[in-house]
Amino acid sequence: MNSSEAAPGASVEPRSTPVIEFRSVQYRLPDGNTLLNNLDLRIERGETMVLLGRSGAGKTTALKLINRLLEPSAGAVRVGGRSTLDWDAIELRRHIGYVIQETGLFPHYTVEQNVSVTPRLNGWDRAQTRRRAEDLLALVGLASYAYLGRYPHELSGGQRQRVGLARALAADPPILLMDEPFGALDPLTRMEVRQEFSDLQKRLHKTVVIVTHDVAEAVELGTRIALLEAGELRGVYAAREFLRSDEPLAAAFVAQIRALEPGGAS
Amino acid sequence: MSLAGYFARNGGEILQATAEHLWLTVITMLLAISIGIPLGIIVARRPKLSKYILGSANIAETIPSLALFGFLLPLPWLGARGDRIAIAALTLYALLPIIRNTATGILSVDPAVREAALGMGMTEGQILRRVEMPLAFPTILAGIRVATVWTIGIATIAAAVGAGGLGEYIFRGLAMVNNNVILAGAIPAAVRALLADLLLGLLERRMRPERRKARPRRIASPNAGMGAAAALILVAFASATFLAGCGGSRADTVVVGSKNFPEQALLGEILAQDIEAHTHLRVVRKFYLAGTFICQQALLSGRIDTYVEYTGTALAAVLKDPIDHDPADVYSQVKQQYQRRFKLAVFPPLGFNNTFAIVIRGADARRLHLKTISEAAKYTPQWRAGFGYEFMGRPDGYAGFVRTYGLKFAGQPKILDLGLLYRALLDHEVDLVAGNSTDGLLSARDLTVLQDDKHYFPPYQAVPIVRDETLARYPELRAAIDALAGKISDAEMQKMNYEVVAQHRDITRVARQFLQSNGLG
After folding, report:
1. Domain annotation for chain B: domains and CATH numbers
2. Which residue, among B109, B120, B127, B218, would best test binding to A if mutated, counting the most A CBs under 10 Å from its CB?
3. Taking the model in full, what pTM does it have?
4. Of B110, B126, B214, the CB nearest to A149
5. B68-116 pLDDT, tens digit each
6. Which of A212, B109, B344, B435 has a C-alpha 20 to 30 A away from that of B354?
7. Which residues form the domain of A154?
8. What is the CATH number of the domain that holds A175?
């Protein structure tokens, strides 16, 4: 509800028109099951919004509504001031980088070809595309020449995740959506890649939306944290205040998630 | 003659048959691929349509190949040429594995990969072309591989409709009870099937993404393999068409057909050599067509110009007129009806009468003192019978035969190919068969023909039949074919059949010898 966002949201001042805005968004499955109910959320330019919650909270649904992999059953999702339904879906998606947990790297493409997909779709020439691929791989810490020609199955999980990120950044999209981007990695690699991403984000200033169930991750990466449960938004918090928040709801969530994820909040 | 010797002596002809066979397979596969892959994509995309498409393909798969060839024969453009019929039927068979594997390949692409592609802003078409098809390709290739091996196998049956190819040897060999001839068709076909399976299998394994290895700066498109496959197919196609093209044009050419047993091939060869000796015309031989129906259809459609038919068969099986027992009546009736209804000219009889012969093992005949069919009637309830397809279906065949003599058999008669009848009888698989009175094996093996003491079987005089159109174009044919009238006696025919079937003598030589000794060569 509006009120649930208003109180905690007051601690972070909205800067300008939001880049992404959910207006009373509802998402229902054809079988009538409601996955997301009455979501109101504004995501500002350059901030990293973390959608935090347990499985089935509606985080991924919310994310997919942004690049119109799903369409709202009621209400509107606005990107750049326009409802996603008014966008050409293809144009909208090329405007938004998308990283998923399994990375979805194309197994029949080399690393270079994977990273080059969006630039090629946008009609870049060969030389330009190759330079971009090299720059991007350097950006995600895979500078070595040897990686360009490898196939995804020849990479480690962490390397695949970095390539997935590089691919999402390829066309320099102003918005980046990440669905459990580090979820499939072992704890050490996860912390390493997360740190890299955090440093990267300081330089790139993208508007980022990250879905996670990991409280530590949320706190480390997020500018703000939106807490979701059972398809409802339960509050939006500034990341640095989240763990110390004495709001009963947030504290309960933190405790709950900490209990479920022993390694998550260390 | 040894198998190697047979291959050595008939190398050129076997090569030609292999080229025809290759041509059939390549055209079929190109058609099946270009129809099957789009259908497979539709099946993957539209689950509602999938049951209709897969259902139809499944049904096509269950139709026996000979029946399918038969269905296609009367069709206007398709039925006009044997290779068209064969290609249409083979394509129908090849579709199912290609459709199924295309759909399976697309549907088994990792949903995360599809979602990533969609999320990156690829259109449906781009996802299909750049992601789904390349990833499905190894699976599609596996389907193509299965279809190719099937097609190579089934294509041998295409010889039954005069499409040529290696199957001609298999049919001829079965008809001649000659293993060398069967193997001359079967070995190259099997080798081709194995080779195709091996090559496509290699290509398929190479295309699996997990088999790919990093190559520095690999810029070549992932479709290079597909390109190579296409190139390979095209080269094979080009060479096959070239080889098949050596067949020459149809100008000043007469096509002689025959049914699928040695006597027919011999008569076809005699007719062919006779035409070659008396006219300037080139003769193309399309022998071993699978039966009367197919020969008649081939004649009507102009796929062949002439073949030798038997008057009784023409009357009962083609004209479907009531059975008549007077040879002269039957002949004039057939001649008039053929002229009026089909515009086909029936020439004077060649001399011999090839009636059905009811045959049992000589040992049984001696032991039970059997000479006539009537005498055998009390033993037949303990006997198994073997008959050809035509005998079972014809009005002058099985039904009237058992009614006239009041026969019963142990179980349903076994339906056998003409070439397998005597083998089955000699192997004690059956105890009584209906063969032909001029069969060479009758004198070569210990077999006894039971007399048709109730004169059930109508006369079957051999008569050349020629298209009016062909006669109008090449009037010199008339004199050439008339010269054969009355020249082949029953004994002469049996002797020639014996030479071909029992002694494995080459049909060409037997025919030449006959023509020369009769002053016709």
Report:
1. 3-211+224-245 (1.10.3720.10), 253-353+459-517 (3.40.190.10), 356-450 (3.40.190.120)
2. B120
3. 0.67
4. B214
5. 877 777 777 777 667 788 899 999 999 999 999 999 999 999 988 999 9
6. B344
7. 44-67+87-260
8. 3.40.50.300
